[in-house]
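Help wanted!
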Amino acid sequence: MSSEPVERRVSYIGDRLRSSRCSICGEEYFRPKDYCGKCGRKSYGKMEDIDLFYEKGTLEVCTLVNKPTNKFAKLGPYIYGIVSFHDGKVRVPSRLTDLVLSDKEIQLPDLEGQDVVPRFRRRHRVKASEIVPTISLAFTLAEGYYPHQSHIITKPGKEYETPGIVGYGVYVSKFRIKERVMERSIPFMDEDSITAAVEAGKMALIHSGIDSSLVGKVYVGSESNPYVVKPIASKVAQVLKLGEEEKTDGLQGVDAIDTEFACKAATSMFKDATSLVHYPGSRTSYAMVIAADNSQAAPRDEVGGELDLFVGYGGSAFIFGMQDVIAEVEGWYSCTSDTPDFWRRELQSYPRHGGRFTGKPAYFKHVVKAYKKLMARLNLQRSDVNYFVSHQPNVGFPTKVAKELGFKEEQYVPGLKVSKFGNTYSGASPIGLAAVLDKAKPNERIVIVSYGSGAGSDAYSLITTSQIEEKKHRQKFTVQHQIENEHIKYVDYDTYRKFKLGL
Amino acid sequence: MGRRCPSIIGVGRTKFGEHYEKAPQNMVEEAGLTALDSAGIERKNLDACYFSDYFLQITNKIGIEEGFLSELLELHVHMEKTRSFSSALLNACFTIQSGKYDLVLVGGVEKMTDRWDKIRDDLMLLEDPWSYYAGCTPEANHELMLRAYVRKHRISGKSLDKFNTALAQVSVKNHFHAMNNEHAQYHREIGVDTVLKERSRTQRPLGMYDFAPISDGATALILASPKMAKAHSDVPVHVVGFSSATDYITFPSREHRTGFIASKKAMEDAVKTSNTKRDDIQLAELYDQSTLLEMIALEDLGFSKRGKAWLDIYESCEDYRGFYEVDGRKLFVNTNGGLKADGNPLGATGGAQIFEIVKQLQGEAGDRQVNADETPQFGCVLELEGFGTKAYVHILSRD
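Answered by r_m:
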């Protein structure tokens, strides 16, 4: 699909599965409709917008597609079928995704009748120069890796004096590669950093229970945007309906921006989000910060291929606000130096790095400095800190820095997830933070120090509130759930490279 | 049918298959000339041309097809391009019936192999973009319908084996019929085993031998008013019933998914306007884009009871005598080999279906001539566009 207007119209409807319901007779239609076919003219203006994005459907009937059309060839073989919503009131064509079909195992009758969840994915292959087409007519089994979760909007109960995190979400795919001690998450064929950003953001909205129209700004930090020019944040804003919807124009009243600073592209914006929601003049109730990467690495035998042993895939999203805060942002410190320890030039597919110099003069110097300055600024001792999370490009660096700073295993291991997901670049330290928040009790202090090559670090101190407990039940898809999930699928090296390259 | 019943006074077609050397225009010319020849009229006597191609604009980048035809025929009459041959014929019938024209050329052409590498994407995108976006293939909807059918009618165990065999028999039967069709794409008899083996090899409920092929070809006929028919033909075939109906483009959105409501409605209307009874129809050219669709058509058109067509097929094919036995009556189906073996060049396909019924009713089908007690009086043709999105039914009758 190279037509920009067609692409806009298809993804506008398909990304969120926008649909219609007649308020007179209740008839439902996939895709927006101005009048009801049954009620005719009297229904004009009486159609309600519904969307199926947060709904659970049923796979009514399906078949195996082992000879896909050209644009889907890379995905095949796959299961294609009909999914119905609302007890058969509306039906949509559907593809099951996240399935690697080994020929003998497919039992179509076992799949039929199962509940399925719509997933936001790449639609099909296009030329490298074309717009990346997306759609949510891809589904996974609700009993599988990714559970169905309703989006229930909850009225805020308490206004805090200090802004902080009101909800968060993490998304890593169910596919992993296991080599030596490391497990790493890898995208399925139809995933990329855009789809991870949307899924993580969706999870954060579910967890926070906020009305997405109150999100005034969204930041997406990534270094693997499939586009050099065109933000991921615009897709996130549209699909998640962030900010007030201007329906007639099909636009969202939200500011959306992508940021880039290697692995600290997202953490850098935590303070901006915090400040924005704190400043009354901004009239911004909530701001969302997303970190998403399909971390890039050259193949193992090429220059820069060392990274290929460490890179992961995933996204995390944090919503900042003043109401029903689960972790207050106590303070921060950031530092920067022009240290070119890791870079990717224009038109290059893979990053390069400075080898041994990515350690001492880069990672350790910035992380330690940021941590120490933050502690000094806030007059804190190490004993005041319950959990320590740092950027995790591998297991060695964060372990070493935590030990050097005097932290015990029980303080830094909960936020050290690189051995489970790999280095998720922008998402690496935020996923660590999410893992700690999943676990933390009220009134605990968490220090997170990110690191981005180039180079710089952001250090934050967060203090959890009593609401962290109250909101826990809202998120089934926790970091731990994504580690211990029985549906995790391990693949070999060749499959991993193929998946990473994607459609 | 009222006084101005349109009649077919000449038919023509090319062989279906792969015509690497020929441009679409060459094939149109060949089919058109044959039709004019058999009608014994000159092109300059034509009042209008209705002709069809499903997607020549995509496969051959041919724009205003009428202009090409005008150049070919050196005519400046009214010409209209439709998507299927049946649609062209239907429109031509209206013009004859209205009294506007007396002699109309109806033609159809398709050149699918010119774009063989992208044809499945094109076919699916045209059939329904939203299904395409979700990963549908030209075969997948057939398989979904099959599964829905089996479930709805609770076919299992030995019955399911019979059901699967019955669908294979459709293909075997159509290949058998094509042996005597000089224009058919395939002249190769196959056995039930061949069909079943291919399904199991590819792990699909319907395999390669269940689906109509990709084909090139052209067909044409001359449609005449009663006065002209009388003047030019001793054996005119009258189009006594014609109708069309439409359904939603997205198959999953339709109310019924074990049959085509469009086929049912078109048939009911065509029968009603033709002043015949369904039971009088002994010949049927059904749109067997897949073996399943031939079976489904038997039900949609009301020949077989819902949920029972496969049994009619199975019982008729155990010892096949050239026809299906339905309700104790003989029904000759797809005696040209159907889309499966005759070929399926979309825009031309309906023309081959009509061609066959005309030849049979005229008693000129040669080795294919049905072994009925007497030459049949009525035949019907079902043609579809998309996956049951549009259905056309024509009922033909000899004098």
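OP: Thanks! One thing I noticed: DSSP finds 15 helices and eleven strands in chain B.
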